[in-house]
Amino acid sequence: MSEAKREKRYVPVVVRFDAEGQLQPLTIEFDEDHKYAVDRVLDVCRAACQTVGGVGVRYTVRVQGQERYLWLEKSRWFVEAIRSQ
Amino acid sequence: MARNIFHVDFNCFYAAVETQRRPELRGRPVAVCGSQEDRHGIVLTANYAAKPFGVKTGMAIWQAKQCCPGLVVLPPDMREYIRISKLAREIYEDYTDQIEPFGLDENWLDVTGSVGLFGSPMVMAKEISDRIKFELGITASIGVADNKITAKLGSDYKKPDAITRIEADNYREIAYPLPVRDLLYVGPATEKKLNSLGIYTIGHLARCPVDCLTYKLGKMGAILHTFANGKDPSPVKRTDYAATVRSVGNSATTPRDLVSDEDVHLMLYLLAESVASRMRDLAARCMVVELYVRDTSLVSFTRRRKLAAPTCSSAEIAHTAFELFRANYRWSQPIRSIGVRGAELVEADAGVQTSLLDDEAKREKWERIDAAMDHLRQRYGYMSIRRAVTCADPDLGRINPRDDHTVHPVGYFGG
Fold first, then answer.
1. Number of A:B CB contacts under 8 A?
2. Which residues of A touch B137 (CB under 8 A)?
3. Which CATH code, of 3.40.140.10, 3.30.70.270, 3.30.420.10, 3.30.930.10, is assigned to B1-156?
4. Are B68 and B96 contacting, i.e. CB atoms less than 8 angstroms apart?
5. What ipTM describes this predicted complex?
6. Tens digit of pLDDT for each residue in A29-55?
7. Which residues of B are catalytic?
8. Is the pLDDT of residue B414 over 50?
9. Residues of B numbered 79-98 whose beta carbons fall under 8 angstroms of chain A's beta carbons: which are they?
10. Which CATH superfamily is B176-228 part of?
């Protein structure tokens, strides 16, 4: 991921809480036309986002066969979106 | 048994947090400064890109901009710094439950009990350092030693992002040549006194006879002597941030300079209300009232007075502080900032040595009035009830020292 072309984009996320209180992101609603189902959560850890800045919980998720990071920071979700020129 | 103590110190903490969350600022000179409108316009932290230009903590913003025209000036976001500080604490908690904070960006950790689980102290320090980098996106300097004072010396020794071990085998080699001011609790005044004894380095101090130091510095002389010899027996206290409080203080850099006794009187009432109210939150009373004054040439002094009996009455604290002020200030300069502190706290319901001469009933009455004010303010807001004196000057009177200043410095000796 090249740094210059990314930006911090806060996104709505559909989340499921299980009985233990664990949360699982189900759908990333990037915009009206792009809603991506999270196929699988591969890893969850606390991390600082180097590319667009921010400190929170980093979910490594598989979306449409690709690995992506989804970040939860202060109860808001964000992704490292490609900057629209 | 030898202990394993870490001192973890974040490098340029506020500025580091800001550049972490704004990647576009990385590599550019950045300073986090107090707000210009309210005249707290000084540099709180500058990052490493700003330091070569001569930007230093405590500088006025205009001075800093003169040194470094391209300086990016940001307002402080205390809520975020506290959040990051708490996250750091959660990292430390994976290694020990003995964590003593010293401000938001420094912590002592006693890891003696968990070294066996993780290997060696240096391995643990490296792991903590790596986790801070990965999880918080900032860097820390860590001092590894067998006591708190030497650990702090270690974290100051090499910056940024370094781990320095100073123990018996290399103590003299590393610590002795350092200037004596590097030792915690040697400020400018103490340094001057030590210099007058021919003591310029920690080595000089360590080798100086204790009698000579106590003669010049009182009991602090003996304490500094043990510090210089790398022998500080004080334990790492198990404390939460701002939890163990031995004193409660508030100070304010006022929106305009204070120029008369009336101005000072007003400010002391405001500050005393905040101090008294925070003491009541802690169910504490103070035995000592301290006054802090800093004039426009940035010369400051502190005076303290012991009370006949412990109090948490704002009127009594303000009154005592004002007496101290009248006895100690001659108005050679206007005043830039002023502070009040209640020290030697005792539990509010602890037995009180009542005085025969003091009017206990009156004191209790005032404390009840204060408590009623707390209650009203909690329900209806800070401005819902005010002393008439604070209406005399709207600029000064609108300050709410209790809630506007969330970080209160804590002393090493807890007081």
1. 34
2. 48-50, 53, 55
3. 3.30.70.270
4. no
5. 0.92
6. 998 899 999 999 999 999 999 999 999
7. 106
8. no
9. 83-84, 87
10. 5' to 3' exonuclease, C-terminal subdomain (1.10.150.20)
